[in-house]
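My convention is simple: the sequence line spells out the residues, with the fold written below as integer tokens. I include a record here:
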Amino acid sequence: MNAMKKASLLLFLLIIIIVSACSFGGSSKETIRVSEVTRSIFYAPLYVAISEGFFEEEGINLELTTTWGGDNTMTSLLSGGADVALVGAETSIYVYAQQAIDPAINFAQLTQTDGTFLVSREKLDSFEWDDLKGQTFLGQRKGGMPQMVGEHVLRQNGIDPHRDLNLIQNIDFGNVPSAFASGTGDFVQLFEPQATMFENEGIGHIIASFGTESGTVPYTVFMAKQSYLQEEEEKLVAFTRAITKAQQWVDEQPSDVIAEAIVDYFEDTDLELIEQVVDRYKSQGSYATSPLLQPDAWDNLQLIMDQAGELPQRVEYDQLVNTSIAEKVLK
């Protein structure tokens, strides 16, 4: 009887050990803290990865925080307040130029074009870029990626933004839409959903896309400190696999289905407006369909920064872009 009790006890302990091992190995979740630079329909694949359970499938518990601004986002990442930052790739160049001991490395792209649009106050039957000459143009904050892309596109179309326009750049990013709505400027460079909202309300009219005009650029990427990449590579492979699933899902699904999937992240925005914005971004290829950041896009980014006088130094692609994680996922 004692022998039977001992055997039963051993069997019970063995079952406990097996169950514990399974829970730690298979079903336990790895937490990844992500700081996003803003909350935007432009980042739809990220929210899809959450709402459709792609992170959960990869065993990831995602903690998402909106840090409102590139400086805040990078501070959060570099100080250890976040594991991953979703922000413009140009910020990694700024950090690198400051000779950071533990630089921020780009490992997956989310959007591959600029996300702003040219909006006119008056409805134009036809539009030529020369129509901007001599007009008051309400641009984005100097030194920011929207402003750099905006000036790049203007130059491409034969316009010197500082000589041919009455250029206003001293209004805070968040106040640009309200400034235009209250009567400032003949033309304005706007993100969504303000551009589509203004068109729906008759406040302005979308006449061109800076994203289409400027070409492929790593506009918004996921980055992590070099040390985190080295220590947690497999965790980031799982993270990137979830993002890739979402990118493919967004590429395949109609805009109304995508809007339904992300509507909970935009409580103050109508579902119909979200669908319009998603459709506009999808139609111009803003959502990356692969996490792999390409060398030509990296070169285009530095060209745009250089033309704007904001490139502190040229940085080689392989210095600040990690391709091994995306390549593992794509295999």
